[in-house]
């Protein structure tokens, strides 16, 4: 048996599980492993240094799976923005069928992808942004709760509230993101109106994730209290793994008079974060992790993980929940 939802039918996958885009991590190794396991693997466009490198990575991924996979394009403000349009052109030229967009002002990119017949999933952290993305033409939304890794927005609203709100407010389907990593979570997401789940941190802790094993072991040892929110005073909150650098950033932000980004920039540079994944020192820099780390206890293959999540979800729905529905005559 499988769980068939609008997500599985619309993007042609077996299981309603998406591997979200992750900087430095969303490579062909991980994306193909997730897709081969029946989920939707996602390459992260900006992990590749140039659009042509993305083209090569797409082609490399196709040698590793014949199943559907997508590409993430995250749009963030920057002093020198990446060539987003050129990355988008490569996605279109290479015949990608599913794109995950995230970040600011996705309108022109959604339009380009839709004109090319690409299915667009846009990630949002609030209902107002979800309604905007729906109006701009997104096919599906990924509703990202406060539990998530990375940028949860500034409203601090958890998935338990956002998902039923989305079910009432939206006309297009959505998936749940932030705090998902096991079968009970998947069952809960479906019950709250989602068509599947998007997982980042949980896939970060798999055999195929292209990061140092020390970082995976750090997640296994972590509890639900081992993440931290930085950039709160800068109104650009980010959830990261709680380490020495994160604590230093928070201390700087709490100084009287507050802090400017320049005060913490050397500590939070992307180059330092990338080295965490390469050299295995969890305290070398900032790296994102969601509160789901509290529920991560092993480092499975993607195939084992996906099968386990789906089986747990089925057992929860058919075993635990259905068993609670009884005739009043039996009371």
Give the gist of this structure.
The chain is an alpha/beta fold and 331 residues long. Helix content is 40%, strand content 14%.
Description:
InterPro entries: Aldolase_TIM, NMO. Keywords: Flavoprotein, FMN, Oxidoreductase. GO terms for molecular function: nitronate monooxygenase activity. The protein has 331 residues and is α/β, with parallel strands linked by helices. Helices cover 40% and strands 14% of the residues. It has helices at residues 6-11, 28-36, 51-62, 84-93, 107-115, 127-136, 159-169, 183-191, 201-204, 213-221, 244-253, 261-264, 270-279, 302-321; strands spanning 17-19, 41-44, 69-75, 98-103, 119-124, 140-144, 174-177, 197-199, 227-230, 238-241. The chain has an 8-stranded parallel beta sheet with strand order 1-8-7-6-5-4-3-2. Strands 9-10 form a two-stranded antiparallel ribbon. Strand 9 (227-230) and strand 10 form a beta hairpin. Helix 2 (28-36) runs parallel beside helix 3 (51-62) and helix 3 (51-62) packs parallel to helix 4 (84-93). The relative contact order is 0.13.
Give the overall shape.
Answer: globular
Radius of gyration computed on alpha carbons? 19 Å
Strand order of the largest sheet: 1-8-7-6-5-4-3-2
Structural class: alpha/beta
Mean pLDDT level = 96
Main sheet, how many strands, which sense, barrel?
Answer: 8 strands, parallel
Q: How many angstroms separate the termini?
A: 32 Å
Low-confidence runs of at least 5 consecutive residues: none
Number of helices: 14
Give the DSSP E fraction (strand runs of 2 or more residues).
5-15%
Number of strands: 10
The succession of helices and strands, N to C, reads HEHEHEHEHEHEHEHEHHEEHHHH
Helix fraction by DSSP (H/I, runs of at least 4): 40-55%
